[in-house]
Amino acid sequence: MRIVRTVVRTDQAALAGGHGGAVLREAVDKVLADVLRQTMGAGPAGGLPRELVIQHMVATFNTTLRWWREHRPAMAPAEADALFRQLLLRGLPADVATPFIGADERVAKSLSGA
Q1: Cβ burial 8-33 (10 Å sphere, 16+ → b, else e)
Q2: Packing angle between helix 50-71 and helix 2-15, nearest 10 degrees?
Q3: Angle at Cα 51 formed by Cα 47 and Cα 56, nearest 5°?
Q4: What's the distance, Cα to Cα, between the start and end of the chain in Å?
Q5: Distance in angstroms (rounded) separating the CA atoms of residues 87 and 81
Q6: With 90 as the cut, is the pLDDT of residue 52 above it?
Q7: How far apart are CA 41 and CA 38, in angstroms?
Q8: What percent of the chain clears pLDDT 70, i.e. is strictly above it?
Q9: Which distant-in-sequence residues (6+ apart) come within 8 Å of 20 by Cβ?
Q10: What is the DSSP string of the chain?
Q11: Distance (Å, whole) CA 43 – CA 24
Q12: Are 57 and 36 in contact (CB under 8 A)?
């Protein structure tokens, strides 16, 4: 929870910074990824490539943070943290994810001209 509060303060500073905000955001992402690398150790993570897992976790954190700021800014940090944990630990329900996975075939057909 402390990391959520720290990143929220950093993210608010980044919003006010224009191009500097993007640089700050990248720096925060690097720090988060480095902390995860140190915490996770070497090798695959749950049968998945370690770097893929790290990138997924950082991206999910950023997506939750951005959604919170843009759509529910009055939400308490604990609630945003609970949503982040739900996405990270349980993922999306199959009925929500399936249309996106099925869209993959439709996009491939569309790109190939079939």
Answers
A1: eebbeebeeeeeebeebbeebbeebe
A2: 70
A3: 90
A4: 49
A5: 10
A6: yes
A7: 6
A8: 73
A9: 14
A10: -HHHHHHHHHHHHHHTTTHHHHHHHHHHHHHHHHHHHHHH-SS-BTTB-HHHHHHHHHHHHHHHHHHHHHH-TTS-HHHHHHHHHHHHHH---HHHHHHHHHHHHHHHHHHHT-
A11: 29
A12: yes
- Please answer whether residues 44 and 67 qualify as being in contact, where contact means their C-beta atoms are separated by less than 8 angstroms: no
Question: Which pLDDT does position 78 carry in this prediction?
Answer: 93
Provide the β-strand partners of residue 45.
48
Q: Which pair of tokens denotes residue 70?
A: 């843009």
Please state the pTM of the whole predicted model.
0.71
Q: Which two tokens stand for residue 64?
A: 């939750």
pLDDT of 94-111, one tens digit each? 888 888 777 666 665 665
- How many whole angstroms separate alpha carbon 55 and alpha carbon 58? 5
Mean pLDDT across 45-63:
91
